[in-house]
Each structure stands twice: as C-alpha cells, then as structure tokens.
Design goal:
Elements: H1 2-6, H2 11-17, E1 18-19, E2 22-23, H3 25-43, H4 48-68, H5 70-82, H6 86-90, H7 97-112, H8 129-143, H9 153-176, H10 180-207, H11 211-218, H12 221-227, E3 228-229, E4 232-233, H13 242-262, H14 266-285, H15 294-305, H16 310-328, H17 334-340, H18 348-366, H19 377-383, H20 397-404, H21 406-430, H22 434-452, H23 465-495
Helix pairs in contact: 4-5, 4-7, 5-7, 7-9, 8-21, 9-23, 10-13, 10-14, 13-14, 13-15, 13-22, 15-16, 15-22, 20-21, 21-22, 21-23, 22-23
Amino acid sequence: MIKTLANSRGGWLKKEFFSKGMVSPAGIGLLSFVAVVFAILFFTGYKLIPFLAVGGLIGLIVLYLCFFKPYVGFFIVTLIAFFAFYPKHILNIDPPFSTLVEVLMWIVFLGSTREVPPKGIKNSLLSTPVAKVFILYTAYHLIEFFNPDMYSKAGYIFVMRKFFMFIIIYISAYRLINTPSRFRFFLKFWIVMAFIAALYGCYQHWFGYLPPEMSYLRRHPKEYDLMFQSGQMRIFSFLSDVVSFGVLAGTMCVVSVVLAINEKRKKEKYILFLMAFIMFLGMSYSGTRTTTIIVPVGISIYLLMTIKNRTTLITLFATVLAILFVLFAPIYTPSIQRMRSTFDPENASLNVRDENRHYIQPYIYAHPIGGGLATAGVAGRQYNPTHPLAGFPPDSGFLQMALEIGWIGLGLTVIFYLTILYQGVYHYFRIRNPEYKVYAVALVGFLLSIMVTQYSQVSIGQIPGIILFMSAIGMSKRLFEFDEAEHQKNQIILRT
C-alpha cells in the first residue's frame, strides 16, 4: 500500500514522505502519528472511527484499481464475490457485498473502455453469433417491461439490474483478458479459487461447521432443515448456498480433469488431478443431486469432441469405471446414497417436482410471454404477492423462465445456449494451436455442464459462478482470436 501511494500522481506526497521506494523520516512520523491517534480513539470508546478510516482508505484503493487498472480490478471484484456471503455465515452480519460487487463491476466496465488490445488482436465481440442472439435476448427482456400480467415494476427493475450486470461481465472479461498470458492466469485463478472453496467444504464435512456457522444455521430453522438431510449436514463452503457451491465445484472439476488429461508435465498433471478430486468431493458433500450429472456430461462432451485423440479411449474407460463405482460399489455413505438417488425414478423429491411441472403447464401454455419477471417463487412473494405464481417453487431454471418470460422466452433461452455451445465447438475445430484447443474444449465442457443443471436447479445467476459463466462465453471467442493472430504472424514470418 505504501508503495502504491509512493507511485501515485501526488508528486508532493512522494517528495515529502517517500524516497527511493523507502519511507522517509517524515513518512514514518506521519504513519506513527496516525497509528497513535487510531489507538487513542479505539481505547477511548470511538472504535468505529478507525475502522471507518481504514475501510475508507481500502475502498479508495479498490475504486482506483477498478477504474485505472481494470484488469486487476476484475480479479479483485471476483475475489470479493467469492467471500460476499461469508460474513453472513460467520459474523451474523449481512453487509451488502453483492451490491458492492455490482457497483465495482460497473466501474471495471467503465475502466475497460480504455483498454487497448495488443497488436494483432481486435475487439470483434459484436460480430459473433452469440452476441447477436444476446442482443435479441436482451431486447425481449426489455419488452417484458410492458407485460400486462406483471403487477410490480420494482421486481422487474431488480431482475434487469442483475441481467445488465451479466452483460457487462461478458463485455469486460472479453476486453480485459486479451492476451494468452492473461487467459492462462484467468483459468489458473478460477481453478485455485474453486479448489480453496472445495477444500474448505471438505473441512466442514470432515470436522463440522465452525460454531458461528452452526449458530447461523440454528437461527434459520427452515434453512437448517434443508441442510440436514440423510443423517448429515450438507456443505456450502464460504459460498451463498449448497447449490452455488456444488455447481462451482463440479464444473471446475470438469475443467481441471480436461486440463490434467492433456497436461504433458507429470507434476502439473498430478496436481490438477488432486485438485479435481478435492473438487469432486466438495461437490458430493454439497448434497445437491443436480451436481451428480455435471461430471459425466462435461467429460462426455470432451470425449465426443476429441474422439480421434488416443487418450480419449483411456478417459472413456476411466469415466465408465468411476460411474459404475458410484452407482454400484458396496459403499453406503450419505453422500454416495444421495448421488445414487439422482437416478432413482421412485425418488420422492423428483416426483414432487414432476407433479409441480404438470400442475403449472396450463398456465405456461396460456401465457406465451409469461407472468412477468420476479413473479414466481420467493421473488414473486416479495414483489408480486397477489400474483398467481407468487410462492410457486420453480425448482428449475428452465421452468422459471417458462413461467416468468413465457414459452417464447424459454425458446430464446434455449437458442442462446445452443448458440454458445455451437460457437465453442466451431472454434475448437478451427483452432490450430494444441494448447488453445485444450482450453476451448474445457470451456465447452464447463458451459454445457452448467447449462444442464438448469433443468433441476436455478443454477445460473448467483455470484461468483455467474462471473465465470459469462466470462467463459467471451473467452471462447478470444481463444480463436489468439490462434488467428499467431497464425497470421507465422505466415508473415514464412513469407519473409
């Protein structure tokens, strides 16, 4: 922090208090004076003032980085998003960190407009089929403002505020991660953060929740009942809920496995497999049945896209053995039993969801543009309490779309998802660089596996997962541009 201040534009401050990267005597005196004042305030009962001052200083630094160093700011915002809900679980306070993430992401977006791509790389995001469908999808959501069945505009504004944040994440990530080295760091950052989350989730499962976390659950009996199932506590790590944690751990497990399979260096390969294993354990400890399908789906698309690769058959054999082990091994732990129940047609939870879907189908058929945004589930009860859909549990991202934006909106959503996958597969087969091809197929596996979870969970939209999801869509295009730039450079070298 001292070095940052020393290198700032404040020439007088640098001259008077800093010298050659070291704090001058005047600087030491200033810092000592501030420390003494803060200590006096703290011990005389004015504890809030030092915390506000330190928090304000940190806030100013973060704001500066988000606008003037948006690439750094992007990862700072992502880091905040990972721990946004932890204070609620551990300190019994609920600071508006999710709102802070939105505000900072907008600042990063504004800062990203000043980002100049390196030579040979062009910002051509709007030329992609995904961007064009996304524009159509956004226009449809704007038209929903005039939905006559939506009673409250406040709920619409709440949903659209998040929707526009998704858009700026998509654009900002594309603008900022504009070199291969930045992309590699981006991928490593997410793998490491998902591993840390999974490792902490394993700790919670093996040693139990920390006392403050358990106190939080006991203060919320309904949430406690959802968490304690099959004789054990479901795990949410330091994320908002078990679904967000399970989906993040499962999808990043897929990415890590794909990278590990194609890694030539043995040390890195073993590390990636170990991290993937911890993520798989974290996913299973979340107790979310939906996540059981993530790894098979992600690995399956990898197998289909790399069918000519000689390691594919080995991967296929290992995947089949792993699935058979989970389904039929004589191990009856609560986590394994819950995963097996995903494929049990007699499962009571699945039957209830099917009954709810059949019950609400007539409403979907009769409302092609839906009942309006924020009209179903908990949001409907809050913003549209007298609406027919208020309180109805969607229990599915696709069902929620069918209810709120109608079967027309659901159709557009499916087209949007298919376009994303088409772009990823198309770029994979057009890319020449073997390293970029591995990244491309890993992103497709991630995107498909998280899309599939939308069938039985509202899994797309919560932080921090939505940051990775929207960024991955743009990264598929970036990988293709990296490859094109390298190919053109090589052609120029050959000609000369």
